[in-house]
Fold this sequence. Notes:
The structure holds two protein chains of two kinds.
Chain A (H helix, E strand, L loop, with lengths): L3 H7 L8 H38 L2 H6 L15 H32 L2 H16 L2 H18 L9 H25 L3 H9 L4 H12 L1 H17 L2 H6 L17 H10 L7 H35 L1
Chain B lengths: L14 H32 L5 H5 L12 H32 L5 H13 L4 H15 L6 H25 L3 H9 L4 H28 L4 H5 L19 H10 L3 H32 L4
Helix pairs in contact in B: 1-11, 3-6, 3-8, 3-10, 5-6, 6-8, 7-8, 8-11, 10-11
Amino acid sequence: xxxxxxxxxxxxxxxxxxxxxxxxxxxxxxxxxxxxxxxxxxxxxxxxxxxxxxxxxxxxxxxxxxxxxxxxxxxxxxxxxxxxxxxxxxxxxxxxxxxxxxxxxxxxxxxxxxxxxxxxxxxxxxxxxxxxxxxxxxxxxxxxxxxxxxxxxxxxxxxxxxxxxxxxxxxxxxxxxxxxxxxxxxxxxxxxxxxxxxxxxxxxxxxxxxxxxxxxxxxxxxxxxxxxxxxxxxxxxxxxxxxxxxxxxxxxxxxxxxxxxxxxxxxxxxxxxxxxxxxxxxxxxxxxxxxxxxxxxxxxxxxxxxx
Amino acid sequence: xxxxxxxxxxxxxxxxxxxxxxxxxxxxxxxxxxxxxxxxxxxxxxxxxxxxxxxxxxxxxxxxxxxxxxxxxxxxxxxxxxxxxxxxxxxxxxxxxxxxxxxxxxxxxxxxxxxxxxxxxxxxxxxxxxxxxxxxxxxxxxxxxxxxxxxxxxxxxxxxxxxxxxxxxxxxxxxxxxxxxxxxxxxxxxxxxxxxxxxxxxxxxxxxxxxxxxxxxxxxxxxxxxxxxxxxxxxxxxxxxxxxxxxxxxxxxxxxxxxxxxxxxxxxxxxxxxxxxxxxxxxxxxxxx
Lengths: 307, 289
């Protein structure tokens, strides 16, 4: 198959060079360059103040310290409590998003009739489109009181409520990516299973899911990355107490909460507090970047196999 | 996608299969129930507070007379600016990638991975970028235009990805036909590819925009959380609707939480209206090849 760029060349070449054609190419390339520039701008914006930060605070203290009090005297810059906060929230989010998202994907891809599918998919799109500040409102004003009413004694700001609501928010992410991967599994494989007398459950769990593994894992990784980067829900519902606690009923501070809350105040440029935002932001960006690249690679893998 | 029912197994009941099916229904139900409870709760809390005051008055420390007019206007302005910036940039990038780039070149592959990654960068990181470069770096300040630029960068990858899909859906036979008639590369793109892809591009752009106007964190980073009592201007201080909602949620008085719910209703209605437009365009103008 010829690519479209080649197709363009197969047209009879004009007798003289058309400069306007070249100009179009340059204009389009310039637009594409904006995206590349954005990435470099992000990296540069984070690196410069972060490097300055690490000249004042040793990286060892930052990555191994267990006390996070950057805005108070005596200031401690141990990022571990923020990492633990981020990971516990993400853990509870995944506990909801991964099984429910995968279940939804299997249902959509293997069980749902076309009519059910055509109603369920837009509903998931709506769920994915709801602003995170609205989920935050829901976590704080409905879900936390609800947890208390069923006997789980949570604090007003707590990990459990924020984490579980983030989990629901991530269901469409897991479901739609996983379903794409299952959809790409050739029908012959399913038919082969049925011919051998497999039930629909066996076809789903032993043939389709294994065949779509790389895409499914990609959806999990992307969901974890989104959970780590989620800001508004934790800012509203999980509090701002930088402590190392694995008790989901208590409040924590995540990396995103710290960035979001600190930048709200008018922090003077160049101060250590200001640079702290960038050091934490760099850590956040690095973690999510690695996960995104893993996810992109995995998606490409199943596309190469089946498409 | 479902295959034909399996008659052999209809003979005896497949209990595990039934149980598995029930589990799948539970996972689907979880999303649907939460969605209904969420919307129901917001409507119960906020419906009584969606008043003329909310739409026309500036914010106030008294919830009875507080409104979100400056925030609503700012969100509309930001939405229009984002649309104005992202559509040309996004479509141009998508055209480059689909119609001009040679996929074998490393820089084109890098461009592609770069865009996919940007689509998954946490929104608060865009806020940091805005704080460092746009607000302080080039000294634009904490103004509405800065917010629009940040949301443009945030939305751009989504617009590019959906525009690429729309362009890819235009069959090659159309291009070949045009080339056969002697059209140049750009003439093919401009007269054939772009018109055929417009419905898909419009749908994708509107959906991306409806996500953008719900974004809170990046705007928070550039100081949109301020008291603004006047109608916003492009180069003035601003607060957007989601930020106003966050501000009200934070207030200790219960009335402000209800006011937040009312503002959420307004935001959801705006987003729903945009989605409806997108769906109408998709259903009415999209060609099946």
